[in-house]
Structures are given as C-alpha cells and as structure tokens.
Design goal:
homodimer, alpha/beta, 4-stranded antiparallel β-sheet, about 35% helix, about 10% strand, binds pyridoxal-5'-phosphate
Amino acid sequence: INEAKEISSSDIYRYEANRLGIKIEDEDFAQKLDNQDTLKSFKEKFHFPMVKDVCKCDEQKKNESPVIYMTGNSLGLQPKAIRSELEGYLNDWQRYAVEGHHKGEHPWISIDEEIQESLAQVVGAKPSEVCPMNTLSVNLHVMMSNFYKPTQQRHKIVIEAGAFPSDLYIAESQIRHNGFNPDTSLIKLEPLANEFTISTDRIKSILSEHGESIAMVMIGGVQFFTGQLFDMKEITAFAQSLGAVVGWDLAHAAGNVELQLHDWNVDFACWCSYKYLNSGPGCIGGLFVHERHTREFDSHTDKRLLGWFGNKLANRFKKETIFEAEEGALGFRCSNPSVADCTSLRASLAITNGASIAALRAKSLLLTSYLETLLLSIKGDHSFSIITPRDPTQRGAQLSLHIGGKVSAAKLKVSLLNAGVVCDVRDPNVIRVSPAPLYTSFTDVKNFVNILIKSLSE
Amino acid sequence: INEAKEISSSDIYRYEANRLGIKIEDEDFAQKLDNQDTLKSFKEKFHFPMVKDVCKCDEQKKNESPVIYMTGNSLGLQPKAIRSELEGYLNDWQRYAVEGHHKGEHPWISIDEEIQESLAQVVGAKPSEVCPMNTLSVNLHVMMSNFYKPTQQRHKIVIEAGAFPSDLYIAESQIRHNGFNPDTSLIKLEPLANEFTISTDRIKSILSEHGESIAMVMIGGVQFFTGQLFDMKEITAFAQSLGAVVGWDLAHAAGNVELQLHDWNVDFACWCSYKYLNSGPGCIGGLFVHERHTREFDSHTDKRLLGWFGNKLANRFKKETIFEAEEGALGFRCSNPSVADCTSLRASLAITNGASIAALRAKSLLLTSYLETLLLSIKGDHSFSIITPRDPTQRGAQLSLHIGGKVSAAKLKVSLLNAGVVCDVRDPNVIRVSPAPLYTSFTDVKNFVNILIKSLSE
Ligand SMILES: Cc1ncc(COP(=O)(O)O)c(C=O)c1O
Ligand SMILES: Cc1ncc(COP(=O)(O)O)c(C=O)c1O
C-alpha cells in the first residue's frame, strides 16, 4: 500500500478488507469491520441524542433510537465521564471553597497544568509547549500579538481565502493594529478557478511569489469547509525558509489527524476543544508555542500580552511585581483558567488518549474511505460531488458534499434529521459529513449512505 | 445620618440599632440583627465547607459544622442552584448535541446574551452595554487594545502603584506594544508615605499634574488589598475632563458595591465573576463598554480585536466575510462562549439579583460596620490595624487588617482555619476579612471576632 503514488479510498479499503479476510461484496461487510474494530467499545463512552429529540417532523416524535451523528467536526458528542467529573469539581468547590486551589484530587492552582501532558499527546508536542487557555479566536490574537512583527520589508500575512471567517478578521485587525493595510498586507491563498482545494505546490508557489515580504503564514491545518488536510510539515518548512513565522489553526485538526507540531518545527498553533476533542460547547481552547521561542523571556522586548497567570507561581502572589514568565506555553496565560472547563477537557482528553491518536487516525482512514467508496458507488441521477480531496492522506474524517441540481442542502439537512442523521450545512449548498472514529461505526456509515440516497430522491 | 460629613461605622450601626429598636449593649444584639435581616434566607442558598475539611489540625477532623467564610472577596461560595443548572446544560448537550445551539430552554447560540440583563443590573448599565466574555485579564487587554491610542502628546496610563499585579503587567505590555516606554508612560498613583489608601483629592491632583499627557486611567474600583472603594463617578468625570479614557477593574466591586457605570459615563469596565458573584473558579468574566462608544463601527478605523462572535448573527455563518459589529458589548466578543461557564454565571446572578444589589449593599454597610466596631473594641495588647478606610462609603465588604507585632499573618490564618474561620493573607502581613452579605450573618461576624481574639493571643 505504501508504494502507490496517490493512495485512494478503494486502495485502503481493499487492503484492509484483504488483511481482515472480509469480502467487500459481503452483505455484512460493515458489520464485520465493526466486529474487528479495536476501538468499538469507545462508542459506549458517549451520549447519543435520540431521533425524537432532534427531528423536525411528527412521525418520529417517539423514535428513541440514537441518531447517526456526523457532526463531530462541529460539536463532539458528550463523553459520559464528564458528568461525574463536573460533579467532582462541584464537590470540591462545595467542600473546600477557596481552599480548593490547593486541596482535593485536582487542585485548581494547577488544573490546567494537569492537562499539558494529555494535550501534548494529541498535538505531538512536549508538555511544556502546550497549555489549555482562553478560546480559539482569543488565542489567535494572543499569538499574533506576540509573533506578528511587521516591518516595511516584511509585513504580509498569508491566509486561505476561504479561511474560517474569524481567522480572516483576526489577521485583518492585527494588520491594522500594526499600522498596515489589509489590502496590501493580507495575502489570500485562492484555489484555482472552479476548484475548492489548493495544492501544496500552489501554496508554495504563492509563498515564493511574495518571498521575503511575508511575516507570517497562518492556515487551518484541516480546512473547515472542504475538509482538506494540508501538508503542515512541508508548508511550515517552506515558509520558514523564506523567513516567515508559521502558525496553524487546528480547530478541525486536533483529535482528528496525527500532528507532530514539535518535530515539524511549527512556531505556534491554536485550537478549540469542542469538536473532535468532545469537551463541550465553547470549552477552553489550547495553544502550542515551540520551545525554541520560550527559552528566554525579556519583558522589555518580548511582545507577549502579559497577565499574572503567565508569571511564575512563586511571584504570583507577591506584592512586588516581578514578572518572570512561566516555562513554555504557560507563560502566555493571562488569567486563571475556568476550572469547570479544564475539568471537562481533562475528562474528554482521557478518552481520546485512551484510544490514542494513532489508532483513531488508522480507523478514521478506513472509515472515511468506506464512506467515500459508498458515496461514489451511488447509482442514478443523484447530483452531488465530493469536494474533499480523494487522497485519504490529504483529509481528516470529514467529507464535504457539494449538492448540485435543484436539491437544497438546507432542506436535505432537515430530511436527514428526520431520518435520524445529524450533519451540517454550509454556504453554498454544502453538507459536511464527518464520521468521528471515536464513536462512529462502519454500520453507521452504511446506514447513513442509505438514508442519504433516500433523502436525495425525496 | 446624611448630615454627617464623614460617616463612621458607629454612626451607621447606632442609627440602625435605633431604627430597629435594639440596644447595642444587648448580649443578643447580633442575633436580633439577624432576625431582622431581610436577606437572611439567602444563606441557605449556598454550600459552606465544614470545618473538618479545611482545618489543618487533627482535633477538628470530625467537626462537621460550617466554617465562617470571610473570603468571598477571593472566591465566592457555591450557590446550590449551580449543580442543577449544570446538569441541565449536560442534559441538553446529551439530548441535542450540536442542535443544542438552537434547542432547549437555554439555546447556546444566545447563552451569553441571555445574561446581559442580569449583568446590567449588577453594574448599573444598559443590557446592551455589557456581556459575559473571556476572563478579566484578557478583557483588560481587549479593552486596552481598543481604547489606548497613544500619541506623542497623550500617551500615559494612570494606574494604582498597588494595583493587582495583572493590571500592571497588562498596562505595561500595552504601552510597549504601542511603542512607548512604561518608565515614562506608566504613572503610578502612590499613597502618601506611611499610608495605604489614597484620597480622591490626591488622585485628582496627580491627574492634574499630568493633564493632557494622560491617555487612559485604569483603576480597581475596590482596591483588592486595602478594600478602598474609590469615588468612581468623581474620578471618571475628572479624568475625562482632562481628555482621558477611563476604565475600571471591577473584580472586587461587582456584586459588592452599587455601581452606575452608565450614568457615571465610564468608558469601559471589566470584572471577574468568581468573587462576590459566586460563579466558580475561573468562570467567565464580564465587560462594559459605554454605548456612546459603540453606536457606529467602522472596521477600518475601529481598533477592536475582531472575532467572528462579534459579527452580527446574520453574517456569522455566511461564506462572505462581511463584518458588522453586533450592537454594544456583544460586538467585542471574539469566540463563542463557554456554555458551562455561562450556565454557572446565570444561576449565580439570579441569586444576586434576587437579593438586589441595593439590599445587599445596605446590609453590607451595616455588617462591615458591625465588624469594624467589634474589632475596634478589642481590648488588650492585640496589635493589628485596619488599613481599610474608616468611612463606610469608601469601602465595600472587606476590611484588611495589618497584623503588627510578632504575629505572622500566615500563621494567624492557620489558627483561624483550625478554629473554623476562612480568610486570606496577603503580603505584607495582612489578613483580608470579607463578610459577604449574601451569606454572612451578624452572628458569624461576632463569632469571627471572638475567634480572632483567641487566635491573636495564642
Ligand atoms: C483586582 C483584580 N484584577 C485582576 C485579577 C485577575 O483576574 P483573572 O485571573 O480572572 O484575569 C484579579 C484576580 O483576583 C483581581 O483581583
Ligand atoms: C477553523 C476555525 N477557526 C476558528 C473558529 C472560531 O472558534 P472560537 O469561537 O472558539 O474562537 C472555528 C469555530 O468553529 C473554526 O472552525
């Protein structure tokens, strides 16, 4: 399988079927894959909504079967363990009040530091390089404030034209804050005409074009709309060779694909934890800063936005205001973190790492390939196209279906909901389908495709 | 009572005793005050730690009586209602998953907007002027990034010399970010020699001295260390008359004293919610921006740090990246907020507003005056002095006791803990004592003073 130049879904899936001794033609192919799935027990660790609670029609108002949940790219399902962990937090607060900062099983004074190791596993970093803090857009500002140091010669920020809107707003306002003009300092990576995705070669050629005028490159590791997984290692190295700082928005990558931020020499990265990391809506985000940036801190030249929680613990409660940055990512904290959110995140990361990113990715490659293969084999006049790259190494779990013809994606979403499938819709007329490997079975994928076929012909 | 030039504790407390027909000399004076306390039922709404869980000695390891909690200025007690509200949040996430953004009793898409009205009541604002978001130090950066626009003529930030360290770091880094030097641009309000507090007159005279070189004044409304309540109305008006922007750090003021941010014409304010607002450790902060600053938004000149959640809801999920700021404070959001934290805050604000800030402040004036009167009447050689202003209108709930002689405040704190009292210690040798009116009785105050006397003589 490693010899193929471009690996396709069917390669992966034939290879796996072969390895497992399952015939692709078998009626119970999905069932057999599920039986052999080493992660299958993880599904039990999550709460699934029931069809009756999300449907928009009367017929299903009594249907207590679980939905097929294809929206882990937007908001992950709730890990059952979070309830008891939050109760533990409430018990500590009840029992110790302010003394909870230093008492209990999870003292609050280090509630975020306790998660560094687990976060590091998820993004391929040293524990000191990562820390949960703030939320994603805020962290992008925190990082850009520190790393974007434009000069007349080098002032451009390169970003995807189709980046998540927040990232565009953030880059624009950082450019303006530094007295530059987004019209001339913001370079948007545009796909070729009539294409949705953008190749590494094209990215490199645009980077080359702007060369030493580029101060920073900031791209989503997995594109939120198309599901494209960028070659972060290659792009990071290439942009750095031009002298740029490279940051990644990993909202759709963390918990979805394998990351090696430290080894790839990434400068910084930020992510949210409520998608593939299942920590709950709006839960605390995460931040990576490569250790080579934090070895020395000089408050007079460093551009970080200071706050007392970035100060060494030994200084933090002293009257003298001596600021010595905590080691690594911790030194970028401003405030004491939300204990409720750190607690939820700790519980959800334990599940992800219990499965391991490597095993999740292995399952995901097969699961999404299976999904793609089934989608491509749909017969008849169903007009949709998959805008996500065909090469499984260039995508995560998500496939984005551009719905053509007269079918409206918004209406399709409702039909799917009424048939017990949750997925989401994005302008223009795209359905995002994301079988998260932690809690999605091969049978779910098969059932989803059958429901989709029915819904498309309604 | 209104005629007195400076009101003293004993004035308040004699006046109240008289009004209530209670003799100060009565043995059961505290009990009688408690009986007449219209807020007494609120104590039941909170969880109190038991002595056995916080003490540091063996003798008390079975003592299941509740502590006397004097640390509401640091971390408020847990409202019992938060548990069921958080369960409601978990139920919604379990039941609806991503559809919870638009379903359930508290749809997440407006989970923060739902709290604007309650927050507005607490700080004396219009609902559109306030919003829960981020955390305190982060919000100070968000506000300073927007409002600090230094020029060669006007570049100074005025702050207390003894400000909470985070505020000093924030001001320093904002000054450096704008290419100025804290040595010349940061003006620190110093008390007179041998004094802890600083008068309005002195503040005004320092402000006058720096006149039109002042770009911003940023002070803690209630001083975290001394407990001094500043005359926010007067200082705001005076500094604005010099052309400065005025922001307040209300960490120790929100939920503690009466605020009229709108009427006082304050430019901006930020606070945390885990102290007198009892929302839990590290819970989401709050932000006020006066409506006159947000009537028009021009993305090309406005300095706010943009993020998608500040964009109008109608634009937020569109592919076109049109940024039109949401009305008022909402337009300063960057990220979608933590639903767990907004839920906790909603539950705790309901209690505060159930009591009403006016009633809380009325009780607090009496409660802290009673505390002060008892402390001042301690006989014998107990060397401590109260560094908080004697005038009740110049302080909130907290009294700070500077412990003199050979007694160490840190050791005193432990003796107090072992005797069932929680209070906190700050460098140098100060004990902060804060009878939060929501859950502290007059009897608690009386018992506290008796325990203090005993601990001091150990
Ligand atoms: C006056 C004051 N300002 C700022 C802060 C920092 O708060 P946070 O950690 O929520 O940013 C505190 C925290 O106690 C405070 O008391
Ligand atoms: C790629 C990407 N970037 C940024 C964001 C903004 O996240 P937040 O609201 O947590 O700042 C999102 C949210 O979905 C996202 O998908």
